[in-house]
């Protein structure tokens, strides 16, 4: 389980489509083989750690359901180690189970930095104004909705310490709807006898 509060901005060292290696000195210093780390919002298992780098095996299922397949050496990725008992829950409950890949529709820069993301129906169904969403692993509050997606407002700190500050129209992003909204929605859809 994660919070959507990015702990480090890592850099892709290599990715051959199956083994992803990320330079992440802070995260690697505390990680062990078998640990879970959210990489761009995707829960991956550490399979090797050495010299400030983390290695992860990425299976075809993960490639088909996320935007990880487009990563190349030098690309920045948001990193968050899994929560430990006693850690502060500063964002919202994030599982690292990506629901869909969204596409950035527009970016409005400046003091009121906003990003519109087009999202598939299976994500939009669980979005509400002022509700939570994870975009590339970053816990955000939905500012507005329309029939194609949602808008988020980004503060300068988020822009500086995550990959969201470099988003451009057309960019693909990993989306995870709020698990509480998904669970409540699923329960509400169940008809009792």
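-> sequence recovered:
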């Amino acid at each position: 389980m994660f919070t959507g509060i990015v702990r480090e901005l890592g850099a892709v060292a290599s990715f051959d489509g199956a083994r992803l290696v990320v330079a992440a000195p802070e995260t690697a210093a505390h990680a062990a083989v078998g640990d879970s780390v959210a990489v761009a919002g995707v829960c991956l298992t550490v399979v090797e750690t050495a010299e400030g780098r983390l290695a992860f095996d990425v299976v075809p299922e993960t490639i088909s359901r996320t935007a990880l397949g487009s990563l190349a050496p030098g690309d920045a990725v948001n990193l968050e180690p899994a929560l430990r008992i006693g850690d502060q829950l500063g964002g919202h409950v994030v599982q690292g189970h990506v629901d869909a890949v969204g596409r950035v529709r527009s970016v409005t820069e400046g003091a009121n930095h906003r990003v519109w993301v087009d999202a598939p129906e299976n994500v939009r169904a669980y979005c509400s104004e002022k509700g939570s969403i994870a975009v590339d692993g970053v816990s955000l509050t939905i500012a507005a909705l329309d029939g194609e997606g949602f808008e988020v407002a980004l503060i300068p700190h988020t822009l500086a310490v995550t990959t969201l500050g470099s988003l451009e129209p057309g960019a693909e992003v990993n989306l995870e709807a709020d698990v509480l909204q998904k669970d409540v929605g699923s329960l509400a859809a169940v008809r009792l006898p």
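The mean pLDDT is 93.
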